[in-house]
Amino acid sequence: MKATQLRNRILAFFVGIALFISALFGAASFLFAYSIEDRFFIALLNDEAQTIATQLAAGEQAKPRLAFIQYYPKPTDLPKAVQDKLAQEPNRIEFSGEGEAHYHLKKLPSGYLVAEVSEQLVVRKIKGGMLTFILVLFGGVLVVALVLAFVSLMMAKRLVKPLDTLVKIVEDAPVERLPQNFSQQFVNDEIGAFAKTLEQALARIRRFISREQAFTRDVSHELRTPVAITQSSLTLLKQTQLDDKQAELVGRIADAQHQITQSLEVLLALAREETLTTAQTRVLPVVEQVILNQAEKIADKDIDVEVEVATSVTLPIASSALQLLLNNLVGNAFTHIHSGVVTISASTQTITVADTGQGIAPQQLKTLFEPGAKGPDSKGMGMGLSMVKRLCEKLDIELSVSSSEAGSVFCLKFPDGDSQISH
Asked: HAMP domain location, by residue (predicted)?
């Protein structure tokens, strides 16, 4: 948020509070004045009611002492305006008449007292003056509110200046080099304590990044080399004469080797930004390479592989990242079905891997992409689809799955407008 926006909000807050309070007290003043005036007329009528009761008890003619109060023995004697409204609202005691006439009524056991108070309505006569006074008061309060707002802004500016300095230090620091040793320039107050805590947190982050970079570098070199050696040794071992038990053990080692290779590639891709750089990649060559990589899994199965990908289809993803995703999805399909059809298709925005296997159980479908989730027949560690999901989130790709007894469909949907067909 810009500083001017924050300043305007503070000013609007003070002005709004001032106007609201002024309007509230102005309305309260009018209500108070009208209420006092009404209570005065009620008191006058109550006093006259006692006089009328005394006169009637003595057999005298009922005659109010005040000239603007009249006694009416029957409802039909009341003024027309009072009669009409009293018929609709029997409990009403205040009435407006023709012109500026205004009546207050008190019902007696033997008649009515009516005060025509248009000449006695003090609030009505001074209403304009009261309104002018309240408006002048509004203006004065508004000026005071603006002064207080500016004073508060100046104080806030002084108080948050160290915080602005701290923000600038963090903003100006390059991404690859986090700031350090900056907390000493701040006073030992709340902001100084915050700067010290932030410095310690950035130091921990810097050490963590350093460890992660070292780990990624070491994994890339120290693990890939023995994995490659192991893979070549397994390839040579498969070409020797093995009995059934040995062949089974070698197959299990090869499966584990393949899982390690895939996991290693995905984890390194997630850790290294350059591996995930977006580029337009032709899909068909990657699909063909993935099928060749996973071919061993369907060597002894009755499975047909159908590829429905035009040679011209491209998608906005690096070739290595696309191969990592398809290696997991296609390998998963090849592993978990024993017979049927696996179909790999692509359009200008999506890639789908569908199979005609037995489907995924509804309960398993809910946790399919969680780490360690796997089916009862799975020999893996249940990390492949979890890593696929993380990779899709990093690349802003929508990953979805649907499954039934007729099979399962995994779909990768790329952001709108990013994919295209090259001609």
From this structure: 157-210
